[in-house]
Amino acid sequence: MSEQISRLDAGTSEKTVFSVEDLTVTVGTRRGPARAVAGVSWQVRAGETFALVGESGSGKSMTLLAATGLAPRAATVTGRVRLLDSELTALPDDRRRKLRGRHVGFVFQDPMTSLNPVLPVGRQVTEAAEEHLGLTRRAARDRAVELLELVGIPSAAQRVDAFPHQFSGGMRQRVVIAMALACEPDLLIADEPTTALDVTTQAQIVELVADLQQRLGTAVVWVTHDLGVVAGIADTVAVMYGGRIVEQGPVDAVFDTPTHPYTRALLAARPDPARRGEDLVAIPGAPPSPLDLPPGCAFWPRCPVRADPRCEHELPPLTPVGPGHTVRTFYPGETS
Ligand SMILES: Nc1ncnc2c1ncn2[C@@H]1O[C@H](COP(=O)(O)OP(=O)(O)OP(=O)(O)O)[C@@H](O)[C@H]1O
Ligand SMILES: [Mg+2]
């Protein structure tokens, strides 16, 4: 491995790489403003993994797109986002784009959305790096081979000139990860990167990213529906519901003592390998529409607890319940 891609030095794990403070995203739609994300705050340090979980439509992707300056045009974004020493939200688009290109790698659910079908994979892996790192074409090709080897593509020196359709789904996702790592990003954003893959390949990709992160000290933000993955890789987890974080904390604390009724329902709905064949415990009801959010706790209509008359009309505050563990509910003390 080159010097460039084995650069985890002591002390990097203290550094906050990315922080999001009070992020709110309102999307203008034909049916009125949709509040997709509201008052979301979190941060991730070098070498750490931050997982964002929640049902479909809870605002996970929009949080990440808005935080990195990629929200749709119709979206109004407020709040503060810092990437390393720069406040992204204060920068003009071109500066933000440059910083994003240099410091952030993205891996999305479907590898084909990130790959150009008519360009050899090797060229794609280093296309951005050529510009950002000032590599010559020759050096870029060598580096592409090295990166493809790093992500476990067999016979990388031969396959560097192959096209995406000549790779399996899992191998394509490895190519996308190689692409995301080519600029040696400080932050890797993976939005459901394994959803389209079979279980064995999913596990390989999860392991690959964890291994690369250990070696490179990358901060990782991982969006997933899979709580098993979260338990395996995340340091911190945030649970989103109706555009807000309802519970956040060290992964062990949240999994061992889930406190928000939604987190508890989500964990109860998790497929348990020991209970294979039994029905899943689905959460009754549907998530709220961002066009019509209830004034109080967004989970109230589906909540099995409803212990406090304020729940329906008043937004519960974020309450600390343990070291680094916060919950947005009126009755964090009454959890069992
Ligand atoms: N381009 C858009 N225009 C209008 N509304 C949007 C747009 N993109 C997302 N939304 C809305 O914002 C809300 C949050 O969507 P988001 O894609 O962040 O959900 P998610 O948590 O990533 O869900 P999933 O698990 O399905 O990926 C949803 O209600 C969605 O309908
Ligand atoms: Mg999403």
TrEMBL record:
Keywords: ATP-binding, Cell membrane, Membrane, Nucleotide-binding, Transport
Domain annotation ABC transporter: ranges: 18-267
Keyword Transcription regulation: no
GO BP annotation list: peptide transport
Keyword Flavoprotein: no
Compartments in which it is found: Cell membrane
Source organism superkingdom: Bacteria
SUPFAM superfamilies: P-loop containing nucleoside triphosphate hydrolases
Gene3D superfamilies per the UniProt record, alphabetical: P-loop containing nucleotide triphosphate hydrolases (3.40.50.300)
Topology class, membrane: Peripheral membrane protein
Gene Ontology molecular function terms on file: ATP binding; ATP hydrolysis activity
GO cellular component entries: plasma membrane
PANTHER family found in the cross-reference section: DIPEPTIDE TRANSPORT ATP-BINDING PROTEIN DPPD (PTHR43297:SF2), OLIGOPEPTIDE TRANSPORT ATP-BINDING PROTEIN APPD (PTHR43297)
Family from the record: Belongs to the ABC transporter superfamily.
UniProt-recorded name of the protein: Peptide/nickel transport system ATP-binding protein
Organism: Micromonospora humi
Organismal lineage: Bacteria, Bacillati, Actinomycetota, Actinomycetes, Micromonosporales
